[in-house]
Design a protein that fits this description.
The chain is mainly α and 105 residues long. Helix content is 49%, strand content 11%.
């Protein structure tokens, strides 16, 4: 067995992006670093506009830089996502599919 961690699914990446931007506005490069997203292999820069159009984050200008901040709707999404993980964790672990939950839970 290799020491590689399983790939994260897009919902987990969205969760981590939203959490990163929840506390203060962040630049895209800082979001990518904090969420541990490799911008070369993940369509990170195409995900961000989707989150903006969904109303989960908002694009702002701060000191001449583009930054993003999680909206109240985005924070609600994060809470619902965590609640769902708590509810389904026993089912996933018992079925052997719990690998996606090891990092985030």
């Amino acid at each position: 067995m290799s020491g590689r961690k399983p790939n994260r699914d897009k919902l987990t990446i969205i969760y981590e992006i939203l959490v990163c931007c929840s506390f203060k506005p962040m630049r895209p490069s800082h979001i990518a670093r904090k969420a541990k997203v490799n911008v070369c292999t993940i369509p990170f820069y195409s995900m961000v506009p989707g989150l903006v159009s969904s109303g989960l984050i908002v694009k702002l200008e701060h000191e001449g830089k583009t930054v993003y901040l999680t909206t109240p709707s985005g924070r609600d999404w994060v809470r619902q996502y965590v609640d769902l993980l708590v509810k389904v964790t026993p089912c996933l672990i018992n079925s052997g599919e719990g690998a996606i939950l090891r990092k985030g839970s």
